[in-house]
């Protein structure tokens, strides 16, 4: 019983620390956020912070990794569509579900490099998926295609977020999936 209580306390503490960083990132870039500010906002002492994270960047990496894992988990749980279509659909659902977090990630303090990292994390094995979906063995073309689609999707998502997510995640996924299929028609 004691371990469960400690686990709950640890989860709560980490959640408060993460929320504090997110709140601070609304007003300043990560390189201006201090551990002291995080601790003051979370109402914890520095040693508690350092028990879980080494610095604000480590904390931010943890938040990003949780987001990546959430999308990867939903990809493992879903069925029915091709892997590429399914991946795109789940990405846009995740962005919409976590829109406040994504808005912070793409504020004036950050560029869309996070989106490229995000798409890259969930597009693991995409070249293999492209090979099977589009019957191509040209690894060089598929590598270029992968990078083209990765940066294109990141740019489209960035624009969607910056515009306030006016379109639904389904509309955005449909657009991107059509673009991918059209782009793939050029691969021989």
List the defining traits of the structure above:
10 helices, plasmid, mainly alpha, HTH-type_Tx_Regulator, Homeodomain-like_sf, TetR family HTH transcriptional regulator, DNA binding, 188 residues, 2 domains
The assigned structural class equals mainly alpha
Give the number of domains.
2
Radius of gyration: 19 Å
In helices, the fraction of residues equals over 70%
| CA distance, first residue to last residue | 61 Å
Beta-strand share of residues: under 5%
Topology pattern, helix = H, strand = E: HHHHHHHHHH
Detailed description of the structure:
This protein has ten helices and no strands. The radius of gyration is 19 Å and the shape is elongated. The protein has helices at 2-25, 35-42, 46-52, 56-77, 83-97, 99-105, 113-122, 126-134, 139-162, 169-184. Helix 5 (83-97) packs antiparallel against helix 10 and helix 9 runs antiparallel to helix 10. Helix content is 76%, strand content 0%. The protein has two domains: 1-53, Homeodomain-like (Arc Repressor Mutant, subunit A), CATH 1.10.10.60; 64-184, no CATH class. With 188 residues, the chain is mainly alpha-helical. The mean pLDDT is 81. The longest helix is centred in the N-terminal third of the chain and has 24 residues, at 2-25. InterPro entries: Homeodomain-like_sf (IPR009057), HTH-type_Tx_Regulator (IPR050624), HTH_TetR (IPR001647), TetR_C_Firmicutes (IPR039532). This is TetR family HTH transcriptional regulator. Residues 11-71 form the HTH tetR-type domain. One of its GO terms (molecular function) is DNA binding. Keywords: DNA-binding, Plasmid.
């Amino acid at each position: 019983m004691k371990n469960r209580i400690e686990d709950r306390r640890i989860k709560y503490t980490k959640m408060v620390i993460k929320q504090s960083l997110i709140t601070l990132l609304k007003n300043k870039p990560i390189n201006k956020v201090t551990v002291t500010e995080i601790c003051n906002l979370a109402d914890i002492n520095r040693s508690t912070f350092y028990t879980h994270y080494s610095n604000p960047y480590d904390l931010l990496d943890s938040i990003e990794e949780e987001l990546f894992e959430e999308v990867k988990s939903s990809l493992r749980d879903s069925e029915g569509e091709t892997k590429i279509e399914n991946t795109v659909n789940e990405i846009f659902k995740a962005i919409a579900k976590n829109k406040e977090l994504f808005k912070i990630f793409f504020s004036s303090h950050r560029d869309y490099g996070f989106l490229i990292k995000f798409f890259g994390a969930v597009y693991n094995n995409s070249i293999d998926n492209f090979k099977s979906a589009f019957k191509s063995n040209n690894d060089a073309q598929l590598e270029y295609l992968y990078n083209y689609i990765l940066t294109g999707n990141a740019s489209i998502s960035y624009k969607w977020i910056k515009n306030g997510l006016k379109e639904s995640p389904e509309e955005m996924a449909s657009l991107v999936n059509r673009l991918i299929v059209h782009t793939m028609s050029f691969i021989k």
